[in-house]
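Letters spell out the chain; backbone shape is given numerically. Both lines appear below:
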Amino acid sequence: MSPETGIEGGTVVTDVRESSVTGHWRVFGVFVVGTLAFSWGLWTLLLFAVVPSSATVPLIMLGGFGPFVGALLALRLTGRSVRTWLRSNLHYRIPVRWYVLAVLLPPLLIVVSSVVYVTAFGGTYALDELVPVWTFGLGLVLTFFLGGGQEELGWRGFAQPALQDGVSALGASLLVGVVWFVWHVPLFFVPGSSQAGVPMLPYAAGVLATAVVLGWLYNATGSLLVPWLYHASVNPAATYFLAGVEVLRTPAGYGTYAVLVGLVAVALVVHYGSTDLAARARVRLADLT
């Protein structure tokens, strides 16, 4: 797009949708403020026990839509079309192998990291704790819509391309990853949340590494559906940590998983480069709206 300017009352008016040296930072800033305000506003009620414990799950799930709310707010305030943005992001005619990879890579990483953990730390397998395979499909569907997958409407669907209007794909992935982790921080102190009891530093490392993998999937396909599926697969995949799910909540257990995902992220950067993090040009918000 090219800048559109005009004169109104002697003042030069510039179309806020256009890219500039700092435009992507303003858009990203609006997204971050909207996301944190919505989610943290709800989760603060849990932190200070303002509501009964029975409200924990509903408020956590509702707060999970914060990234989507932040994206909608930023789109509206910058005069962009929400419909065009969604339609550009949710195209599905891509090779089936990407969908298969998005669904199966998380459980593969979990299983491999559990084997590494048992081998490196002298752990034992707890195969009797494994849940039936069919529950993975159910968990995938639930997580896709309510349990975390929907966050991708904001993280990769909006924040990633907004930053990629001005910075490299790797830089955008890491910045989104930092905000993604910070966004989760209140949940570490909410009893009953998925993050309660999880070691924070290994979790942070895992989120940053996962953000790079998701950035690659998004840029490689140009479709939000692929990273959305990957994110939805991560939570139910955790139940297949062969040394037991509770071990995955220890520094060594989660740390092993985070290191493995980190190695995958490094391999992707080495292979594709930091600029686009894919074999095609990185997705920019200007291309979606």
User: Anything to note?
Assistant: Residues 5-288 form one domain.
